[in-house]
Write a structure and sequence with these properties.
heterodimer, A: about 375 residues, alpha/beta, TIM Barrel, 6-stranded parallel β-sheet, 3-stranded antiparallel β-sheet, B: about 210 residues, Methyltransferase, Methionine Synthase (B12-binding Domains), Chain A, domain 1, Rossmann fold, 2 domains, 5-stranded parallel β-sheet, 5 strands, about 10% strand, globular
Chain lengths: ~375, ~210
């Protein structure tokens, strides 16, 4: 059974994350570990993945066992039952089974919904651009989409199983820009930006319509937890429904093109729910100003890329986000010194640090040190 | 404006038809294919690389410039072949198994070709065994490996281990790059060079060939 006192404490921290009152420390989470050889562990053969291959019971078992073993928390973050990450069962030396998952096993729901074929490889799930002549899914065909139907089915099963006790939510739907890149392929998208900007504008508009349409279908599946809702990506609770927009391919857009093609559609996605988070990478830092200029944006999440600027180099940009009054989520595989740089440079109010950690032990030591330093 | 400068400007503007027309004009005027390639096309693409480094150009501009250059190269190729221009070196390029990201690798290929390398592009999601086979068959000076995902970057190490097992490691230099790769990681797995972007990759490749 979950520790109700801890749940209250964590929910308060999450509420404070959004409201940003003075606080002793940021939210700190250790969301998952990176795993390799996913295809083998998933028991899936290399090749196409279709929605009928996804068994809802696999997700139920994963969360049942995961919560039983690891509890409801990953640091300050909540374990939110959802069908975003594909779970697998792992045999332990003693013969018992451990259920695990990893970010790289993230199911590409929105490209799949748009009509892209999903492939399983040894290390990841990925999608192919639409073949020439195949029209992407639009609002007229969304209702009978098999991938959307599967996402709704699995989320429904998870809601029925856990909805009264643990947080649940529907899966991630990326964002219009990444949906566009998925259906065209990044190279073609880049060429079309110059050769046929009207096509880009029209397609990204269609992707936005589908993004909003999918969230509309997900609305009845948003189960309340402690007077609010959780989202799957960053495992954050908020007083209302939170949507996450991802445009990893923003790196291909100049600031001018970002403003032209993506700012208007991001405004529509941010405005569609009471709370919103934009997922961005340091490689696309040239687009941050455009993103932050959208008043409807709720919070900004910055992924500090391994080969990008150092934490110290990123501090001025991160401070700017905080000064603009936006809650900030930072994601990185931190060294302890980098974490210290971050904590010295940023205010803890409205700050959430998601640290990828090599082991559970390292994560706990990290957390302990942070708490002791703040005493 | 002289025709070579016009060719450069045309590449920078990503004007494929214009670049082809100017290249033909330059050949007709008696300029050598080497001159057109180095002082026109490569000069233009080098400027594109500089503008990308200074963030005034982005990937779409690089891709259309590359397309213009490629179109003009097709015009020059028969002349260059008949002049027997020796390549700077041979490179086998691949995005490692499990990873299907190719835009970075394609840009590296382009910059290497501009630098005079003969490139065998194995594509994306390439198993270590296919890379070993290509090395045995084409005897390159360099292998370039790309990975965008943290989960697939480990495949680079597998390739290096397989090269050792097949007694091929000492015969080839290895450059690694991609969003998930760091200098530290490159050193850790025993690569010969790490490159953060496509223009740097071509510079590193030239250095490796010269020191070999």
């Amino acid at each position: 059974m979950i520790d109700q006192k801890n749940v209250d404490r964590v929910i308060k921290r999450h509420r404070d994350f959004w409201k940003r009152p003075p606080t002793d420390r940021p939210l700190l989470g250790f969301p998952f570990q990176w795993e390799h050889g996913l295809g083998t562990k998933l028991g899936l053969k290399k090749g196409p993945l279709t929605p009928d291959m996804l068994d809802p019971e696999l997700f139920v078992t994963f969360y049942e066992d995961g919560i039983k073993e690891g509890g409801l928390f990953e640091g300050d973050l909540l374990r939110v039952a959802n069908c975003q990450r594909l779970p697998w069962a792992e045999s332990r030396p003693d013969g018992s089974i451990r259920h695990r998952s990893a970010r790289a096993a993230s199911i590409p729901w929105s490209p799949a919904i748009m009509g892209c074929e999903v492939e399983v490889s040894s290390d990841s799930l990925w999608t192919k651009p639409l073949p020439p002549g195949q029209a992407p899914t639009d609002l007229t065909t969304l209702g009978e989409n098999p991938w959307l139907a599967k996402a709704i089915e699995i989320t429904g099963v998870l809601n029925r199983k856990f909805g009264k006790t643990y947080p649940t939510c529907p899966p991630d739907v990326l964002g219009p820009a990444d949906m566009l890149a998925a259906i065209l392929g990044t190279e073609q998208m880049c060429l079309d930006m110059i050769d046929n900007p009207a096509k880009i504008k029209s397609l990204v508009g269609l992707c936005t319509d589908v993004w909003l349409g999918v969230h509309e279908k997900f609305k009845p599946l948003e189960i309340e937890f402690r007077g609010g809702h959780c989202e799957s990506r960053f495992q954050l609770w908020a007083p209302g429904v939170t949507t996450v927009t991802q445009d990893d391919c923003a790196i291909f857009f100049s600031p001018k093109r970002y403003d032209e093609f993506l700012t208007p559609v991001n405004r529509r996605t941010f405005a569609s729910s009471p709370y919103s988070i934009m997922h961005a990478h340091t490689g696309a830092a040239h687009t941050f100003e455009a993103i932050l200029s959208i008043p409807e944006l709720g919070a900004m999440q910055v992924h500090l890329d391994p080969n990008g600027p150092s934490v110290a180099e990123m501090i001025p940009t991160l401070v700017k986000i905080q000064r603009m009054g936006k809650p900030l989520i930072i994601f990185k595989e931190f060294k302890l010194t980098e974490l210290e740089t971050l904590l010295d440079g940023l205010r803890p109010e409205g700050l959430c640090i998601m640290a990828i950690s090599a082991s559970e032990k390292a994560a706990l030591e990290f957390m302990q040190r942070l708490i002791e330093e703040k005493k | 404006m002289k025709v070579l400068e016009q060719i450069s400007a045309s590449v920078i503007n990503g004007d494929a038809a214009g670049t082809v027309q100017l290249t033909r004009q330059a050949l007709d005027a008696g300029l050598s294919a080497d001159e057109i390639l180095n002082e026109g096309l490569i000069a233009g693409l080098s400027e594109v690389g500089r503008r990308m480094e200074s963030k005034t150009f982005f990937i779409p501009e690089v891709l259309v410039a590359a397309r213009a250059m490629k179109a003009a190269e097709d015009v020059l190729k028969p002349v260059l072949v008949s002049n027997c221009v020796k390549p700077t070196g041979r490179v086998v390029l691949a995005t490692v198994e499990g990873d299907v990201h190719d835009i970075g690798k394609n840009l590296v290929k382009l910059m290497l070709e501009c630098a005079g390398f003969e490139v065998t592009d194995l594509g994306v999601n390439v198993p270590a065994a296919s890379i070993i086979r290509a090395v045995s068959e084409t005897r390159p000076n360099i292998i370039g490996l790309s990975a965008l995902l943290t989960t697939t970057v480990v495949r680079m190490k597998e390739v290096i281990e397989d090269l050792k097992r097949n007694d091929l490691r000492s015969q080839v230099k290895i450059i690694v790059g991609g969003a998930a790769v760091t200098r530290d990681y490159a050193e850790q797995i025993g690569a010969d060079a790490y490159s953060p972007d496509c223009t740097d990759a071509a510079k590193r490749a030239k250095e490796l060939v010269q020191t070999n």
